[in-house]
């Protein structure tokens, strides 16, 4: 990549677009990522974009998003900007002409919205349903615009577009004024750190270019922006359809003396005046072609670097000096943000993918617990205590949400109590990671402060978030070393500590079999303990019910207790329905190799229901117990348990013997 090409990319785009895994040129890959998964319009192929960007390399780049409600005129605005700045490709124009005749809503005249609403399905519905990235340029500047859909359920796409933008064009229909959507989108704009809004009060022609209407809307919006901490608002009275105040001043608004939309986009200064942060190089891969060369490759996301500079590797905190800055075109004397480089260091430091190389004088911070804002983007709700992947910069770690402090009504900013989060909801949460990471608060650095959460089973991106601050408690709690450790306890008990985890439907036979195993082991002189769902729910977990969220927390706690018991040298028999794979995996990950033995007590629902030891199935069928496992709450059978016990094939005694044999092996 050539110096001077100003492409920035945030953690969001990387994780979503899958850009640059192991690539030496993230910026180029980002460009392609824009062209590919987001924009569904084939004309903007990666090559064309790269060529275009190269041609306009020396101009500054403004990334912006457009947002507003359906029918506010976003697509028309962008289409017209593209058209009027004459960056349209010839064939696109030809296609547009034909399309307008076929689909256009404007009696055979060119319909600019069709330039942007790429998909046939969208045209039929008359709405834009995905983020579409467009490139255009003028003599002053080049632009990348993300067109964000206006429909309520597509908040997720809007957040995707916003995560890389410096400015948001917020469209308001002059006849309607601020709508719920305007508030929602402005909230997300502020959440994702955009400080500049161009408020386009559109369709002014339909209110006779009435200044009072404009002033009233602008006044209301300024109030909202102030509450949200959006510092810079430029309002423009607009008719995107007719082009008033779009690229030049309109004769219809003599009372307006500000810039046109395009003039503002061309001249607005979006550079962050925040204190210049030092070098940040999230390591994408460690390049070790032979014994004598060890280089750390990645794209510099902030600051600059020269050979001789003192650096610190994070999170380890080890220091060294930069020896060389290697690129495909030879070594550099200095490299800047946006450049993909390989650094070699004066000392042998243990640095791996996901670490951050930072300037020693101005390092990033390190922590493993945070307060953060989360935008939930999955149809399945967020369950606190469940383990997800958190991807930040080039690092991926396991995370759980330890507390939802409150969710936020994005329309009113009201704070509401919540135990779980649904699609498109925003919440303020505490997060706990399984290892420390290098980070910066999102306000200061989007690259090291913005993250996504990934479902560990489906690999789907389920949330986007911003780190607000590290929790103090993380700094102040340390592991207390103990002299009598697990190995010592295990030796004195003459046994290998284990966690034997029985899972299965209610009435499958977990308790019966666990009890028999316990008796046998005890008779053999082993030190054991049974943790049974029914019992633990009378004490430690008596605050929990049977919602998905409560079951997740139930299992998390009992897994932690089982872990403590194995640390005490015991063989623990855990007998819980534990219906979700994710939590059984979480439990497994607490233990060492071979220590966790998953026993699937496999009894078909019909059989468990026939037994109905406690009469619960009958009640559940009668609608008296909501969320009953197997009836109206799911059971996810283990895929590869250490033992599967078929209770239709063998009796409880024989099955217990199989468990004991397994353990004694
Ligand atoms: N709605 C609902 N669904 C399932 N089970 C219910 C429910 N309500 C009460 N019970 C009784 O609670 C026992 C299950 O508790 P667990 O802690 O093992 O459940 S879970 O692991 O959190 O899913 C379970 O005990 P077992 O029959 O021993 O499995 C039931 O007796
Ligand atoms: N092969 C078997 N293994 C375990 N239990 C069985 C078997 N066959 C019948 N049962 C009966 O099924 C019931 C299982 O109940 P329980 O052990 O309390 O189940 P859970 O703890 O899974 O809810 C008991 O009444 C038990 O006698």
Protein traits:
665 residues; binds 3'-phosphate-adenosine-5'-phosphate sulfate; 7-stranded antiparallel beta sheet; alpha/beta; binds adenosine-5'-diphosphate; GTP-binding; APS_kinase_dom
Give the spatial strand order of the biggest sheet.
7-15-11-12-14-9-8
Class of secondary structure makeup: alpha/beta
The helix tally amounts to: 21
Mean pLDDT: 83
Biggest sheet details: 7 strands, antiparallel
Number of strands: 27
Categorize the overall geometry.
Answer: globular
Q: Which spans have pLDDT < 50 for at least 5 consecutive residues? A: 1-45, 87-91, 115-129
> What small ligands are held by the chains?
3'-phosphate-adenosine-5'-phosphate sulfate, adenosine-5'-diphosphate
* End-to-end separation: 59 Å
Tell me the strand percentage band.
25-35%
Q: What percent of residues adopt helix (DSSP H or I)?
A: 25-40%
Organism: Lysobacter gummosus
Subunit structure: Heterodimer composed of CysD, the smaller subunit, and CysN.
Catalytic activity: adenosine 5'-phosphosulfate + ATP = 3'-phosphoadenylyl sulfate + ADP + H(+); sulfate + ATP + H(+) = adenosine 5'-phosphosulfate + diphosphate
InterPro entries: APS, APS_kinase_dom, CysN_GTP-bd, CysN_II, CysN_NoDQ_III, EFTu-like_2, G_TR_CS, GTP-eEF1A_C
